[in-house]
Model the fold of this input.
Amino acid sequence: MRTRLIRPLDLAGTALFALQGGATAAAAGLDVFGVLVIAFVTAVGGGIVRDVLLGATPPAVFSDLAYPVAAFGGGLVVVLVYRLVRAVPPEVLLPLDAAALALFAVVGAAKAVDHGMSPLLAALLGAVSGTGGGVIRDVMLGRVPLILRSDVYAVAALAGAAVVAVGLRYGRRRALVLAAGFVVCFLVRMLAVWQGWNLPRVAG
Amino acid sequence: MRTRLIRPLDLAGTALFALQGGATAAAAGLDVFGVLVIAFVTAVGGGIVRDVLLGATPPAVFSDLAYPVAAFGGGLVVVLVYRLVRAVPPEVLLPLDAAALALFAVVGAAKAVDHGMSPLLAALLGAVSGTGGGVIRDVMLGRVPLILRSDVYAVAALAGAAVVAVGLRYGRRRALVLAAGFVVCFLVRMLAVWQGWNLPRVAG
Amino acid sequence: MRTRLIRPLDLAGTALFALQGGATAAAAGLDVFGVLVIAFVTAVGGGIVRDVLLGATPPAVFSDLAYPVAAFGGGLVVVLVYRLVRAVPPEVLLPLDAAALALFAVVGAAKAVDHGMSPLLAALLGAVSGTGGGVIRDVMLGRVPLILRSDVYAVAALAGAAVVAVGLRYGRRRALVLAAGFVVCFLVRMLAVWQGWNLPRVAG
Done:
């Protein structure tokens, strides 16, 4: 993965997360405005939380107009053609979602390393970048966040982000490290979906 | 609207939002402390989120003691005379609330423009200033935020904030632009209430 | 209390809050990952919110690796020996929790004073430091935050933090002021538990 490819891919991931967030909001019975708001926070919430924690304000999504446009674009697609969006089969949606998650986690971890964070915290902030938007979406919809309830989702983000955090720390080539982190996150997530992996509950 | 009038009006809006937030919390069965907390976050939450996103920390409400005093004052009124507060008829409350919303949205958008944000983001941050406190209130009370469920509320804030963001960008006189934004937000909100406007749901 | 004692005590409080947060998450049926996440945010959420509001980013817990380690350590204990954790009697847990609350409130207020905040806001930020993690925990678990529903918990944090904020403002010896704030918070909380104090509801 060439690093100059990251921005277009990141924008595609933003639009995709917005699409999903908007579809979830529409299914919850929200109106047009609510769908757009939830689409927006799902798509850019993780990156905003990451940047606020890094002290890198205003958040990056606010200084590059393409990000809010991609986020609202994804929400608008839901508003206009919800029936089509709802009909997308999971076999298409899940790999796309896993790819967007991997991209966000990897890019977020790299940004944290660039800001001088230790590998442990860079990995955490990468996972926050990938999953934070979904947490805000679920809290606003009055639900326990999906990542707390099911599947190996945040764990995949954490694994990919950790590869990046450690790899960059030890001076490996940036493009290679990002690609490796992406593949790890994507594979862990897809294997978890395919095999029905779930972590055990703690309380009997 | 003279710009030197903004601070007293802004304080009045803060106290009013605190009053409403506190009344909502009291109706939800919270104790004295809970009512004060919810009154406080309803009144100043939107401005705090705006300032954190702008990187303008500590938030403005923390450096001007009059704001927390106004917010707690509004909450204290609820604690002391909840019966009276509850008896205020909507014909009085709704225009006051629309005025406070308009003021917060307009002031918030102007602040974002002053910090160099683009018009799109300044309009968004103005809407966040006006509605963010209510979102935090609803999330803490375990409810789907009101702005996601009903009425043309956030849309009115967004419209007023957009007038300010665009007007200031193109160099119009500040007092005029703020007044225009205020009137637009107030009118959209009051028309929506009066006519029972609601945006359509997305999912059938 | 010698000020050099603060860091080890603060770490102990972090681990304890993580233990409690994790136990709450386990009781709510979350899986291993969810328990670790909730343990983490319960333990460090209050300090992170305080630092974001102070503009002191990245938050302190991110620059001292011992804090995330203590937080995850507490969560891991829950995952490994939840049965033992659940069996700890309240007579042991409540005083430990009150001590951790007092410590967080006192240290948070002192930090806010050091950043030049007025006594009112330093007291508020101290209370946020002590109770913010629990609020985030409850919101993520879909509950109205405990501090809004019951007991004199946040009020105790506020009282201790106020002692520190005022004491430091008027130039009293730091160690003395912190110790006094700690004792006030701890006693208020323990008396409230022991006597079954609760603030009255506002609405009949």
User: Anything to note?
Assistant: The two ends of chain C are 44 Å apart (CA to CA). Chain C has nine helices and no strands.
